[in-house]
Amino acid sequence: MRLPAELAAPPADGGETPGRRADAPAGADLTALPARHAIALGLMHGPAELLPVSSSGHTTLVPWLLGWPYPSLDPELRKAFEVALHAGTAAGLLIALRGEVVAAVGGLDGRRLALIVGSFLPPAIAGLAFERSIERRLGTPGSIAAGLVAGALAMIVADARGGRGRPRESAGAVDALALGLGQAAALAPGLSRGGMTLAAARMCGFDRPAASALSRHVALPVIAGAGVLKGVRLARRGLPPGFGGRLALGASASFGSTLLAARLLPVERVGALWPYAAYRIGVAALTAARLRREARLPGHAARRSDGRSPHVRA
C-alpha cells in the first residue's frame, strides 16, 4: 500500500509527519531487499513452513549467512515482509490441504472445536503478552541457533518415546493444551511451530501419521490469525512508497512454493524426526562457526546487539 505523497514526505521543519505514526518507517531503502531476494526468500518459506525446521529462523539466517543486505532493512519493514510470507503460505496451505480442511469443517463437533480452541489460546495469549519482548530480545543469529538446537533435542527425545499408537481421533483437552503450549514456545525464533507441535503430539502418545495431521491442523488457525492481526497493525502503521511491490513478490513466491512443496514433500506423513533434527543442528553449527569467525574480526566489540556487523550499512 502506498502512502499519499503529502504523508510520505517528511515535514520541512523536521517534526513528525502529520497523519503518520511516529514509529512508522519514513522511507524504504529497497536496495536492502532486491526483488530477486524477496522472491528467493518467498520460495524458501513454503517448504520451511511445512517441515519442522523453523521458517522464521531460515528467513533471518539465510540472508545473514549469504551476506545479503536484508539484515540492514528497517526492523518494522522486515516484520512486514515476514507477515507477507506467512500470508502467502497460509493461502497456499488452504488450497493444498483443502481436502483436509473441508473434511475437518464438515466433521466439526465439540471435541474437534475444543481441540482447535485449546491449541489456539496459548500461542494467542503468549503472542499478545510477549511479542514485543521476544522481538527485542530474540531473533539474533545466536539465539536462533540455540532455538534450532533446543528444538532438535526436543524432537529427538519425543520421537524416541515412540508414542503409544494413539489415533488422531482420540485427541482431547489435555492434548490440545500440549499442542498449544508447543505453538506458544515456537514464538521464539528457531524452535519451529511444526517441530514443537510434532514433539508435543509424540510426547502425548500419538503415532507419527496422527502427530503429522494434528500438527498441520492446529497450525493453520494460528498462522492465519497471526497474519490477520499483524496485517491490521501494518495497515494502521502504513508502508513507505515502493515497498508494497516487494511484499507482493515475497507473498506470491511463498504461495507458489507452498503449493509445490505440499505436492513434493512428505507433508502428510513426516516420518522419523531425527533427519530434521540433524539438519537443524547442522544449520546451528554453521551459524556458530560464522559467529566465531566474526568474533575475530576487528571492531567486534562495537558489534550491534541485533547481531549485525557495524560495517553493514543500516
* Contiguous helical run count: 12
Q: Got a strand count?
A: 0
Question: How much helix is in the residues?
Answer: 55-70%
- Provide the structure class: mainly alpha
Largest sheet: none
The outline comes out as globular
Kindly estimate the percentage of residues that lie in beta strands according to DSSP.
under 5%
Distance from N terminus to C terminus (CA atoms, Å) equals 23 Å
Can you tag this structure with a few keywords?
single chain; 314 residues; mainly alpha; 67% helix; globular; disordered N terminus; disordered C terminus
What does this structure look like?
- By secondary structure, the chain is mainly α.
- It has one domain (33-290).
- The chain contains twelve helices and no strands.
- The protein has helices at residues 5-8, 35-50, 55-66, 75-96, 98-106, 110-137, 141-160, 173-185, 193-203, 208-237, 243-264, 274-295.
- Helix 3 crosses helix 7.
- The longest helix is centred in the C-terminal third of the chain and has 30 residues, at 208-237.
- The model is unreliable at 1-26 and 301-314 (pLDDT under 50).
